[in-house]
Amino acid sequence: MVRDVEGTRRKIVEAATEEFVAHGPDGTTVERIARRAGVNKERIYHYYGGRAELFAVVLREQFATTAGAVPLDATEPDAVGEFAGRMYDYSRDHPQFVRLLMWEALTHTGEVPDEDQRRATYEGRTASLAQGQAAGRLTSTLAPAELHLVLLAVAAYWTVLPQVARMVTGTSTDDAADAARQRAAVVAAARRLAAPD
């Protein structure tokens, strides 16, 4: 009998993603992942080592997908605004990524898995902002890394804490008209934040 190793691995990662999103790394069990994936627990241990290693794999895949989907090559305020808008869209359309990052923040103290690789992605985005600042096309009030982090916060806050956004603005990311207004606010705020002094 020929085994579909890649298919099995894919099923495990998909099942693990769903479990980690719902229960976090500490609340998820290898048994539940195996049941959801339709495999035995030994496959998970064989391919991934255990729950912690599998959580790192899930985050790695989610982060790589996000980095590819929402690049930042922006040296002018309009492009910075569009980056923030795309990040808002991605956060709204992929809430599992946001939840995984929140679980990671709650369960990891200190360095996280793949931190160096992830930092390199962030540094690439920050370098783009630094180029815009050096050319005088973006604000110099904030350091490039600080501007980058503020942009991420502006873009993702609606999905990170939707209950707070709902209480403050009376809007929901689940409503298309509300989401369009939220996105417009994110883009406008990012442009203003990035505008030269």
UniProtKB/TrEMBL annotation:
Keyword presence, DNA-binding: yes
Keyword terms: DNA-binding
InterPro entries xrefs: Homeodomain-like_sf, HTH-type_TetR-like_transc_reg, HTH_TetR, Sco4008_C, Tet_transcr_reg_TetR-rel_C_sf
Matching SUPFAM superfamilies: Homeodomain-like, Tetracyclin repressor-like, C-terminal domain
GO biological process: regulation of DNA-templated transcription
Residues in the signal sequence: none
Stretches assigned to the HTH tetR-type domain: 6-66
Gene Ontology MF terms: DNA binding
PANTHER family cross-referenced by the UniProt entry: HTH-TYPE TRANSCRIPTIONAL REPRESSOR SCO4008, TRANSCRIPTIONAL REPRESSOR
Protein name: Transcriptional regulator, TetR family
Organism from which the protein derives: Promicromonospora thailandica
